[in-house]
Design goal:
95 residues, alpha+beta, single chain, Lambda Exonuclease, Chain A, 21% helix, 47% strand
């Protein structure tokens, strides 16, 4: 995925460490699979099917990074499945 994104001229950064913030304090961290052009989060899976927990994970990444758009891409046994998540971060309270 990284090679393909970069070959078409996009900036793709893998395994980006994201802080988990609670009430202004860093309480942990997690890793986004790929961030593209500092605007889009790609969360890659290889599961039988996507679950709600996969979508929640992507939404958490969007909120943590203040990014509005993410793609959840599953390279499952029945083919590739893509879901898009869009968050209106302007309506969320400040962290």
């Amino acid at each position: 995925m990284l090679i393909e994104l970069r070959e078409v001229g996009l900036q793709a950064i893998p395994q980006v460490k994201l802080d988990v913030i609670y009430r202004g304090h860093t309480v942990g961290y997690f890793y986004a699979d790929i961030i593209v052009n500092n605007q889009l989060i790609l969360e890659l899976k290889a599961a039988e099917a996507l679950s709600q927990s996969h979508e929640v994970q992507l939404v958490n990444y969007l909120v943590a990074t203040s990014k509005e758009v993410g793609l959840l891409i599953n390279f499952g046994s029945t083919g590739v499945n893509v879901r898009r998540e869009v968050r209106d971060l302007k309506s969320l309270p400040a962290r």
